[in-house]
Structures are given as C-alpha cells and as structure tokens.
Amino acid sequence: MSDGAPRFDGRGGRWVGASVPRREDPRLLTGRGRFVDDIALPGMLHASFVRSTVAHGRITGIDLSATLAVEGVVAAYTAADLDLGDIVALLDRPPEEFAPTAMPILAREKVRFVGEPVALVVARDPYVAEDGAELAVVDYEPLGAIVSEETALAEGAPLVHEEAPGNVLLDVSMFDTPGVDEAFAAAGCVVEVVTRSGRQNALPLETRGVIASWDDHDDQLLVQMCTQVPHQVRTALARSLRVPERTVRVTVPDMGGGFGQKCVVGREEIAVAAAARRLNRPVKWIEDRREALTAGFLAREQRYRTRAAFDADGRITALDADIVCDMGAYSCYPFTAGIEPLMASAEMPSVYQVPAYRVRARAITSNKAPTAPYRGVSRPQYVMAMERVMERAARELGLDPVEIRRRNLITQFPYTGINAVTYDPGTYLESLELAEATLRDEGWFELRDNAAAEGRHIGIGFCCFSERTGYGSDAFAKRKMTVVPGFDISEIRMDTTGSVVVTSGTMNHGQSHETTLAQIVADRLGVHIDQVKLRQGDTERIAYGWGTFASRSVTIGGSAVALAATRLGELLCRIAAHLLETSPDNVRLDGDGGVVQIDDPRRRASFEEIADVAYLRSHLLPKDVEPTLTATASFDVPGDGTFSNATHAVVVEADPGTGGITILRYACVEDCGVVIHPQVVDGQCRGGIAQGIAGALFEEVTYADNGEPSAASFIDYLVPTATEIPDITVSHLETPCAFTENGAKGAGEGGTIGAPAAVLNAINDALRHTGVELDTTPVHPQTVLAALDAAAEEGTSVPS
C-alpha cells in the first residue's frame, strides 16, 4: 500500500507555512466568543469565598450565622461541611529529598497565606454572595509568617507544614560530576553571580472561572471552566469528591489566556463543584482581579548562586549552582513543588558546552499564595543566571560579550551535555551572529559608543538560550513524577461530505489551534482548511489528554493529529483502490480532496464518493474494512524532547536622573523548526517578549513581614502597556525537527525566556561607566537610583 499521506518535506504542503486568516478571529473579534462568564443556566447560583486575612495561623473558630441570615444566601460551607479529599501532588522520591504536603479544598485547622479559602458562600447573585462572605467571622491564633528564603531556612523558624522540616519541600543534588573542584582550582578566571527574580502573576486576560451543574438524567457532574488541563481537573475532582471519573465531565469554552497559571488544579473549582452537587443546582464562580492577584497561583520567585570556572581563553570549565525556589504555601497538582528546581537543575547548562557540573536545588515553602508553572518555568531564571555569568566572565577576561558566547556555544549536534540531556540540531551560533549583525548593520554599536562620549547611557545586551519543548513521558519520568504527562491522542473522522472533525487533547487559550492544527490536517489529506473542524476541551470527546503547556501543542498534539490524518488517508486509499479495482499500491491522495490512480490519473475517487460507500452503501466496501472513516493515533516525543533556540538582542537607554529604562531596539532571532503559521509564531514571540520585559522592568508581588501581599490591584502591580513595549522584529531560522511529525519544535515560551536576561544585560552595559551592576529583576527606577547613589558613595563611579 502506498503511504496514505505525503510525508513532511519541509515546505511541500499548501497550508503549512502560510499565514492563512485565523479561523478563530471572526468569532472572537466580533464578540461571538463564548467564555465561562458568558454562560447562564436556569436556576444558577453564585459563589464567593471567605478568605484568610492572616498569612499563618490556626483557625480557632468560624461563625457563619450572620452570613446565613443574609436574604438571598442559600448555603455556606466550611471544610467540615463539604468533607472533601485533599489535593496531593507526589514525586517518587525518598523523604530526605521530597516532602509531600496536602492542599485542602477549604482550609481546616490552619491557614497558610493571606487569601486562602476558608469557607464558601452560595447565593442567588454574586453581590449577595460577596456580602454574605464579608459577614463571616473567622478567629485565628496567629503564627509567625514565613515571607523570604532567609526566614524560611532560619534555625527554629515556624513550620508552614509540619511534614516539611526546615520548610523545605524538595532538596536534590541531581548532578555532581567528576572534575568540578579540579576545574575551579585550575581556572584562569572564577566568577560568582547571585541572581534573583521577583514573584509574578501570569495575568491572563480572563481570570479563573467555573460553572458546575448536576445532571440527574446522565448522573453526571458537568463542570464548565477555563483550564489548560481538563482531564487532570476531572481526575483530581473525582478523587476529591470520591466518585468515579465517569460521573464527571469537564468542558472548556473559549478561554482568554492561561500562560501556565491554569495548567494546575485549583481548589476553588472543586469546592464550587461540590456545592453544585449538594444543592442540585448550577453554581458559578468568577475570580475577581483582587483574588487573582493575591490568592491565585503566582510564579517566579527564585534565587541562583552560580559559580563558574573559565580558562584563560574564556571557555567555561565547570559550573556550580545553588538554587532556591520559593513555591509558596502549597505544592501544585500534578507537577508538584519540584517543577521549578528540577527543571532548573536538569537544564541550567543551557546552550553552552559545560564539561563539569554540580548543582543543588531546593523548593521551599512560605506563607504566600502557591505557585504554578508560568510561561518559561524556571528557564527565564536559570538563563538569566547563565547569561550574567557570561557577561561577568567577559568583563574579567577582557573579552567581548558576544565573543565569549561564541567560544562556548554548542555547535555540533546532536549534543549530549554534562546534564545527560541530548540536544537535537539547532542554530545556536547562527542565531547569535545574525542578532549581532542586525544591531551592527543598523549602527547601534556606533550609537552606543558615541552616546557614552555625550554623557548618555545606552547599552546593548544579548541572551542566548534553548527552550526544551514538547516534553515527552521520558523527560517527565526523569523527574520521578507519580503523574507523568507526555503523550497526546487524536481522533479524526470524515463525514459523507468529505469534511473532517479532528479531536486533540491539547487546549487552546489563544494560540490559534483551530487554524494551525487544521493546516496540518489539510496538508496530510489534501482538503481545504475550511473542511477541517477541531474539537478540544471536552473530557467526553477525548479519551485522555495532557492539555497545553510547555510548547507541546504543535510538537506533541500536532504530531498526534498528523498521524491520525495519515491513518485516515491510508483507509481512504484502501477503499478507493477497491472502488477503482486496482491495487492499493497504485493509488495516492491527489491533494484535491480525493484519491487518484497512479498509472491512470484520469481515474479517481473523491472523498465524497468514498464516504458515500463507507456510510451509505457499506455493502460495497472491501470485506476487511469496517463501515467507518475514523482513525486514531497517539504520539509521545521520545527521549529528551525537542529544543527550539534563539538569541535576543536589546538596546536600552538608562536615565540616571530618573532611573527610568527605555528600550530602543529589540531583535529576536529564533529557530522553532518548521513554522506552521508565521503570523501566529511571530505573535507568540512578541507576546512572550512583552511578558519577559514585564518581568525584567515592572511586575512584582512583594510581601510585608506579616505576610500581607503588596499588590491587590493594578495600582500596585505594575503592568506594561503598549507604550512601554517596543517594536520587536522577529527573524526565523529553520531547522526541521526529526522527532515530530511536522518538523516543528514549538514556540510558546521562548520570548519570555530570553527577555529578562537580554534586558538586564543591556541595562548593565548602559551603566558600565558608573560602577553599578544589577543582578536582580525587576529593575525598577528606584532600583537604578539606589544603586547609582550607593556606587557614588563608595567612589566606584567612573565619569562617563
């Protein structure tokens, strides 16, 4: 039999590689999208949460009598009332490495952060529910608040969880290869850099939301919500309610962003579902922005102490890192508190050839809102650490910052690093050289040098990095997760008109899956993109799926879709060969909605003709072919996964009078393999860079000593606007991936990974004459001013 679909050949299809009009746009841009808050059900009630006002304390009493007396309040529940199972995220690691902790759906004996849900109020409208929640009286016995690495690890510190001695959730030393100490002893240059990143909120445009309703007819709980991982929500919800999974159906309508914050299971959604089941009425909860900022999942707060040895030629000979990630009050499900430190440990050598490596990584718990994966997941932080090391070593050795990178980049592929990770072919050196040439050709180096003579502070910064994308089961299993994500499943079926419906376990929340996955199917089958309909976000339609995170949608989900389409093509060819009375080896898909006979191209069978036989005249089918046009496939990236790569180049100007930073130029050169839809990829890059700039210069949640969060609104949590984000140019290199069915490597997180380090390096270059060196993000104007004042007092400032 001939192959049922054309194999990937780089750019041979009609649809892949084209910026076709996005199929989601007409619906979303004309206000016809359907989000959770657009849904109203008959008899629907509304929920509001009573939240902790202290960061750490024992609950000594809860009085809901005033709440229940409010007209319109239907019910109010505490943890004891609902009696739900806890959310527990586990790693298969010994107790000395990992301390499992339980996250109750509603706090029981103890609260562990300001905003933790303590009780649930259900009323006839959301305003009454909020009024009722405000009247609840909760008494606490305050305990000492843990709000920093220093307080968490201090001897005798209060314990956030009794099960986590020393407030450490994870403590691993994944690598201690031979030769580290010897390399440092023989080094021509040793640098040590301590980098820190502030705590952030992912800030999806749509906050979390859920509507839960019990269907007596189907004996099923329908949960409509915005989540990146509907199947994991179904699993966790069923376990918490102690019911079979078949009695829970999770569906996801349109979703306004996620960025990782919605790829973990939240407790509020489970509480709302439990209330709906008890009341036998629909219950709705929409998170407000204050809740999202103070009690929603946060991210990013990390500290890296990085030592690196270099020889006299500027080549790195050893790396020694100590990593601490503040994971907040609870371990997220299913990834656990290990997601950040384990990723950083495994991947910190990044794009550089490191011959000896030692690392210790810890996840600590604190009295802050828990963390979830956020676009990039530790990579912005460990990349920033590595890139600051390169900058410091270049200065110490008198080398150009680009040259020291050039000497250390991986250039021979496949490359197996000291971290036991094998990197597939990429364009690490090519992207760096193109980024440098772009700025040089545009005259930015000359402008920088001339500006210094004029007393202006202009700097240029670079960042080289790789992004491991499409983590397969093997990669996640190395972390010793008990819940191991990886594979994806797709089903494709054709109807009597030749149109197809394809399912995917991935979850669109703004990445244009309806378009890009349809492009893949259209090329594989030779149909028009308008004949392809994507179905996602329904646990009844898809056997299981791992949702969308880590740039997996095209690499893994798209590969499963491509394989399913290929198998459907093979089935179409078998039926067509029978109808044309020829051998299956003598037919092929003709690329125009049908199957053609190879030795006589005048003879063909259209998909409509084939489908007519398959469904309406099945007696004409071959005896061994069932009457259906359906195919299913699964896909899992083998080994260590796939790697995209990029170089970011930034020009900034620092104002020593105000401390303000202005980005003058931003260039990104990236290689994400085959680009399915160039416009979508460019949008992913630019959006990711905007979020990375936000982390570099603006966004941060801080806490008072008593655990009170600083940012409860956008007045305090600074978010960049279009005015602060520069024009961004994106240049594409293209190294097709050998491990995916479509040659794509993924592009979802790269923009965010590279921006903080590139911007920080540019700021330090701009301040190079002042004696100031900054290694912490975000860099606020007051940060710059304080550093300049300190440098002036120490007499380290060099006249510009």
What does this entry look like structurally?
Residues 30-144 form the Aldehyde oxidase/xanthine dehydrogenase a/b hammerhead domain. With 800 residues, the chain is an alpha+beta fold. It has a 7-stranded mixed β-sheet with strand order 3-7-1-15-12-13-14, with helices on both faces. The chain has a 6-stranded mixed β-sheet with strand order 9-19-18-17-10-33, sandwiched between helices. Helix 11 (379-397) runs parallel beside helix 20. The chain is globular. The model is unreliable at 1-12 (pLDDT under 50).
Question: What topology emerges from the helices and strands here?
Answer:
Blueprint: H1 25-29, E1 45-51, E2 57-63, H2 65-68, E3 73-78, H3 79-82, E4 87-88, E5 102-103, E6 110-111, E7 117-123, H4 126-134, E8 137-142, H5 149-153, E9 168-176, H6 180-186, E10 189-197, E11 200-201, E12 209-215, E13 220-225, H7 230-241, E14 248-251, H8 267-279, E15 283-286, H9 289-294, E16 298-299, E17 302-310, E18 316-326, H10 339-347, E19 357-364, H11 379-397, H12 401-408, E20 415-416, E21 422-423, H13 428-441, H14 444-453, E22 457-469, H15 473-477, E23 488-494, E24 500-503, H16 513-525, E25 532-535, H17 552-580, E26 587-589, E27 594-597, E28 604-606, H18 607-616, E29 630-635, E30 642-654, E31 661-671, H19 678-697, E32 728-733, H20 750-766, E33 776-777, H21 781-794
Parallel strand pairs: 1-15, 10-33, 13-14, 18-19, 24-25, 31-32
Antiparallel strand pairs: 1-7, 2-6, 2-8, 3-7, 4-5, 9-19, 10-17, 11-16, 12-13, 12-15, 17-18, 20-21, 22-30, 23-24, 23-29, 26-27, 27-28, 30-31
